[in-house]
């Protein structure tokens, strides 16, 4: 039985168990085995562990101080299996990154300053550099706050400004992998963009529906469009099997008044671009943060489908109208017109510090 | 923000957060508010708290040492709301009681002895006295073990023998509230019994089906039979509205070979009586411990429907064939033929010690 310190955090709409790398060292048990055992993953209920038996509550991050210049904290994100013995490290999680940022200040990995403390984080899954800015008045570390995020969690938490630094071209080397601001796929106008993640944004008007929800219902071919997009973006060779998660794919449209999934009415003047993303094969309830980075990058790039919708130009604030509500983000573009950072107003909260009792017999 | 120590335990097939009463004192915030806030109950997802968003993972117990003679530990069980602001204290929970017993030894509330340590527990919800016996070799406190329970959790834990002491007649004052070992309701033979909880056991043979599962499918009227039973047992006056949970109601039949819900084949010689209980309005996946106490009491009482099935007499071990598998229990009957204790072989495990950060603004 291992005894391992950990912290249970809420980040955005996820629950995340944060470990310090040093607390996982000193024995020869693989990280996968520790996580699966700690979470009770052998059972779909995760009743014998700290897992919450849903994808948003079976997440972990392993954090360590960084020796790299310009980086305070490195972290590895882990999506821990539920009812199986699989841990996935293939992607970053913006919700957990938010929690990691607040955790770094709360646990002294980063010393709070008077005013605002910025944590510079390197995500080891993707190589992405992120920042987390937290108000630390007179150097005090906050435990609670009045910030909210759109989605399923109605309780407030500590406001955290989460920034994605230099997000452009990390997968393909280019902002616009096809070389064009707009491509035509079938009869649809599409923008391919690589920022945060490879993504494709389809003009919902091409489906002939009067609302974006109507277009989404008509868009049963989004998955096949994703496969075509993967080839057009150079992510896979023609004819090769395409992954289920990239590129991110979504519909965009001009803002109209609508009602969120939680029943709140949103006016057309409350946001700048309407978006509905696919998550794997189902509609995403809101929008993933990496998809939002991609949409922001497209929106500040002249001539793209999203840029036309927001009225051209380079906006420093963009409001995305998602099914769950409005996600606001800030953009920072340098003198050469390159997008250097996309910043989200997010929420995190420390739920509990823990000492986990982890059976070592596997499972 | 309150900071409150707590322990996350697995008891049987439930997760239970155990508080010490002294850790909840010293401020004037109501217990309900602390629990609802700690669990994040305002949201159905409980993402901002330690709740697991299911009935079996949204449970708490408040424990304190007892000054009553013959009692080591008192505990109050709480079923914490999910997506609402309701905490229910109307019943005991055998799974949490198992966890409370092991927790008392692990935290020093009860000093371990060489050999076996018995914790005597008073459940404050129901006034039930329980015992938890844990093997403590050379006085060592166990953290892991190789015990399993039938149901949804496949990982082993510490074996705990959970005893229900003097369970007879606690609600109605009588073992057989109707005064008969067998009553006839409609065309069905029924035994009403008050031990552990008020319960009624219906002879499945009366439904004319060849298996107990077939009888359960035929038994759409179990809920209306429960209402009739509530009156016949004197729990409610005729014509009054009847509660949804008492009496417990189930079908019993002689053992036959069957396959459990997890796919394991069970032979007719592996158990003594087949049982299928209703939980509220749906089939219970196995059997609640208080229902099992009632069934044990009926089985050792001459002439009842369950006693006929087990072949008469007074068995010191009874094996119940439930949909999830076989639940074995022991009975202790005194010289006057009175059932003094029913003992189950259960499992508990400490998952984590915690310090909870509990927002005090409600919710």
Automatic annotation (TrEMBL), chains A, B:
Gene3D superfamilies: Diaminopimelate Epimerase, Chain A, domain 1. The keyword Chaperone does not apply. It holds the Pfam family PrpF. InterPro entries: PrpF-like. SUPFAM superfamilies: Diaminopimelate epimerase-like. It comes from the Bacteria. Keywords: Isomerase. Belongs to the PrpF family. This is PrpF, AcnD-accessory.
